[in-house]
Amino acid sequence: VHGLGADHSMWSPQLARYPEEGYFLVVPDVRGHGDSEHVPTFEVEACADDIAAVLNDLNVDAAAVAGVSMGSLVAQVFTSEYPERVTRLVLCDTFSNVHGLRAQIASAAATAMLSVVPARFQIRLIESYYDGPENEHVRKYFRTQLLETDRTQLVQARKAINSFDGRTNLSGIRAPTLVLVGDENPEWFVRLAEETAQRITNARFERVPCGSDPSNLTAPEAFDRTVLGFLEDGGGRERRH
């Protein structure tokens, strides 16, 4: 499940590799993103129900579920609401609640930016954040997404992220869980991810070297190495080509 302001193609590195490793990938567009329909209101819980509907349509009873950033919130709720359908859980660049002064300021600033800052200035901010020649593909991806995704939908999703609180549900998660966070994210962000891992009984926490949100796109080799190892360790391979 992809992050805010992205779509299924955020997973392009994994779409190129995982089928060769024997995995069948399901990469939906979250409501209000990509090719999915616009919605009058955005709720993380509704997105989780959408995942269940997609799996029903594909006749998939259970799967390993991975979510990055906003997608990790959807994955948390899905696992809490449909525990029997999750064999393994991967949460990357994740959190379960926005708390702490720095996190709240950053979240409020992100909402304000999406609400009032013209797209051309947002693109400049993206380019400054994902700097360096190694991130040209990331800059290109988010430039395109920013121009193609409806601004109203992004603001609604951002507000839902800011108010999300899944902390009480984490202790009930029983699926083997891998919590990852890019080590180039701000330290307050890393702490939120680590707090999430600490609340899940059967969770492993690791940092992704040279990764930043979304780490699957900014540091795909390190991300894939850890995730594929986690899936192989105990049979996360549910359905094969």
Brief sketch in words of this structure:
The protein has 11 helices and 4 strands, in the order H-H-E-H-E-H-H-H-H-H-E-H-E-H-H. It has helices at 12-17, 44-57, 70-81, 101-116, 119-129, 136-148, 151-163, 167-170, 187-199, 215-218, 220-232; strands spanning 63-68, 86-92, 177-182, 203-208. Helix 2 (44-57) crosses helix 3 (70-81).
Give an overview of the whole structure.
40% of the residues are buried. It is globular and about 45 Å long. The protein has a 4-stranded parallel beta sheet, sandwiched between helices. The C terminus is likely disordered. With 241 residues, the protein is α/β, with parallel strands linked by helices. β1, α3 and β2 form a beta-alpha-beta unit. Helix content is 49%, strand content 10%. The chain contains 11 helices and 4 strands, in the order ααβαβαααααβαβαα.
Write the layout of secondary structure elements.
Layout: H1 12-17, H2 44-57, E1 63-68, H3 70-81, E2 86-92, H4 101-116, H5 119-129, H6 136-148, H7 151-163, H8 167-170, E3 177-182, H9 187-199, E4 203-208, H10 215-218, H11 220-232
Parallel strand pairs: 1-2, 2-3, 3-4
Helix pairs in contact: 2-3, 4-7, 5-6
What descriptors fit this protein?
alpha/beta; 4 strands; 241 residues
Please give the share of residues in helix: 40-55%
Spatial gap, N to C terminus: 21 Å
Our count of helices gives: 11
**Major β-sheet annotation:** 4 strands, parallel
Fraction in beta strands: 5-15%
The mean pLDDT is 94
Pick out the low-confidence regions. Answer: 235-241
Oligomer: single chain
State the secondary-structure class: alpha/beta
Number of E-type strands: 4
CA-based shape: globular
Query: Largest sheet, order of strands side by side?
Result: 1-2-3-4
User: Which radius of gyration do the C-alpha atoms yield?
Assistant: 17 Å
Q: Which sequence of SSEs, written as H and E, runs from N to C?
A: HHEHEHHHHHEHEHH
